[in-house]
Amino acid sequence: QKEVEQNSGPLSVPEGAIASLNCTYSDRGSQSFFWYRQYSGKSPELIMSIYSNGDKEDGRFTAQLNKASQYVSLLIRDSQPSDSATYLCAVNWYSSASKIIFGSGTRLSIRP
Amino acid sequence: EPEVTQTPSHQVTQMGQEVILRCVPISNHLYFYWYRQILGQKVEFLVSFYNNEISEKSEIFDDQFSVERPDGSNFTLKIRSTKLEDSAMYFCASVDQSYNEQFFGPGTRLTVL
């Protein structure tokens, strides 16, 4: 059974600080890793994808992947109130166009 | 920027009735997916579709479910006889040309009474 695990939170971070979100996955055969943001009642919105070990930066977001530890993380710098949402870690296996398996999400709250 | 669209945004139906949820994937995308999310739970994969046939389906996707691409733009999910436990948000997604990143539509909230 392929599993993606996340701490459900809530994670409370002061505005302007760095938010750190973590995710582990169960199978080493994974191909691609994604972070989606989901506001309440809305659909998942892709914010980062990462495919190889190391860091990938896009604006205020940095995704980190460590395949040996089966660990993916997302850092959000200069956190804004609009970053308050649930962040979903997602992984796909087998092939790049196969289904993706989602974690249950971490609820992030940015306090002013 | 192109986006996946879904209709209706909210569908209310009686148990046992058939529903059809509609999606228009991003043009030039080749793989299409349906996922669902029961309130407060994870997003779950239902089915993937490529080249006019199902490429993968989950245990949830039983004989009550079917998918179709009736024309060059629409992608539909049919539930033949809805149950109370089918109440959920249903999301359509399509994959870009690099076959990696799945983009989700806004979802259809299905309520079965």
Provide a descriptive summary of the structure in words.
The complex is a heterodimer of chains A (112) and B (113). Helix content of chain A is 0%, strand content 56%. In chain A, strands 2, 4, 5, 9, 10 and 11 form a six-stranded mixed beta sheet that branches. Chain A has a five-stranded antiparallel beta sheet with strand order 1-3-8-7-6, with no helix packed on it. The radius of gyration of chain A is 13 Å and the shape is globular. In chain A, a hairpin with a 6-residue loop joins β4 and β5. With 112 residues, chain A is mainly β. Chain A has no helices and eleven strands. Chain B contains no helices and eleven strands. Chains A and B meet through β4, β5 and β10 of A and β5, β9 and β10 of B.
Brief summary:
Chain A has 112 residues and is mainly beta. Helix content of chain A is 0%, strand content 56%.
**Helix coverage percent of chain B:** under 10%
Please give the largest β-sheet of chain B. 7 strands, mixed
Q: Which pair has the most extensive contact?
A: A-B, 23 and 26 residues
Radius of gyration of chain B (CA) equals 13 Å
Q: Count the E strands of chain A.
A: 11
Q: What structural class should be given to the helix and strand makeup of chain B?
A: mainly beta
Roughly how much helix do the residues of chain A carry, as a percent range? under 10%
**What is the ordering of alpha helices and beta strands of chain A?**
EEEEEEEEEEE
